[in-house]
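User: Can you model how uridine-diphosphate-N-acetylglucosamine sits in this protein?
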Amino acid sequence: MERYIIKGGTPLVGEVEISGAKNAALGILAAAVMADEPVAIDNLPDVSDINVLIDAISEVGANVVRDSRHSVKINGGTITSTKADNEYIKKIRASYYLLGAFLGKFKRAEVPLPGGCNIGSRPIDQHLKGFKALGAEIKIEHGMIIANAEELTGNHIFFDVVSVGATINVMLAAALAKGNTVLENVAKEPHVVDIANMLNSMGANIKGAGTDVIRIKGVEKLHGTEYSVIPDQIEAGTFMLAAAITKGDILVKNVIPKHLEAITAKLYEIGATVEEYDDSVRVKGNEVIKPTHVRTLPYPGFPTDMQPQMAVALALADGTSTVTENLFENRFKYVDELTKMGASIKVESNIAVFEGIKEFTGAEVNALDLRAGAALVIAGIAAKGFTTIESVHYIKRGYEMLEKKLQKLGAQIELTSSDKEIQKFKLKVG
Ligand code: UD1
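Assistant: Here's the modeled complex, given as structure tokens:
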């Protein structure tokens, strides 16, 4: 069982290179199967969710050539099955993008009900509403979603909630539907725009991604392309917060500063300094972290995927702060773990109240989900003494070589697979 062992107390200083955006790459990989020609994708993050989806794409018969850790060529022309089902694909959330991609291309698809981190009930009614509006029939049987259509026809669809997944999924299917589709009340996240750009580079006709309304003129087929995934705003934000929390100084490279504005604004509020450059940001932590209030919202609001990392800063602030979680009801699972490290946090419904403490003390904690896991890693680096973090597999879903990047910034952290390795680390760092 892999665990992180951390000796805390080191301010993180130096430069870090941000990988490609996991959540954009997942949609882009699904889009790639929609052509019958090679699609070359670059700047893929080397994380487990991506590797699971690539394996599933290969298993349905697509020709997949993994030219390097960060690039892949996919030719969907050889696909023999529209059913994606293995024990790994069941566990990731983005398996559902194969539904939109297969339905668009083959008018039929069969994928497992999606897994992903247990951060709330995570329904997919809006995805299914969109597919039905395009003319698909949907059945759920034995844990599988089965979609079939004689023909997909463009339609006017108003989403009841702003959903990243539903926006991308219905956009994928509508790209190859007959006629025009208008999607209203859509998500505006940078990865929605990235996937629309990628589809357009394959010959799709999608306008408006990044606004509330996306207009799609269906095309008959999509062709090959070469595409590079945008940088991961959440990985970048995690390192930005790490600088503030450890009172360090990090140049976060290969980012799009515009995508980080909500995070940057909160960093200013808590007293950190942020300098923006063309494709990097430098964050310097301040001795005193000021308290503030955070509400998660769809983009351009403060991202729910940054809420746990922000919470770590607020737990160390000089005063009382609050976090209101508006997207997922189960996103405060890290609270009990941070409490083991000395934090003082009370949760009532979707609001957490933080009474700032001076310092965390190292403890044995459990990652519980992807972003909560990343938050605990940063907390461990700021803490006094040793912290061990279990369930590292969650963190590996979305962070590429997190420990290596942190070591380069001066953190004393190691990925271990036995008690013996933990003892060795403790002896080494003293
Ligand atoms: C995606 C991201 C996830 C991020 C989230 C919000 C991926 C693989 N995951 O998840 O990291 O936390 O966006 O930025 O890209 N909802 C419904 N019905 C639906 C769909 C969603 O009610 O059919 C609700 C959800 O319960 C939630 C809200 O809409 O309250 C937003 O969810 P959504 O944007 O769909 O999140 P995901 O796409 O699952």
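A couple of observations from the model: The first helix runs from residue 22 to 32. The first strand starts at residue 3 and ends at 7.
User: Helpful, thanks.
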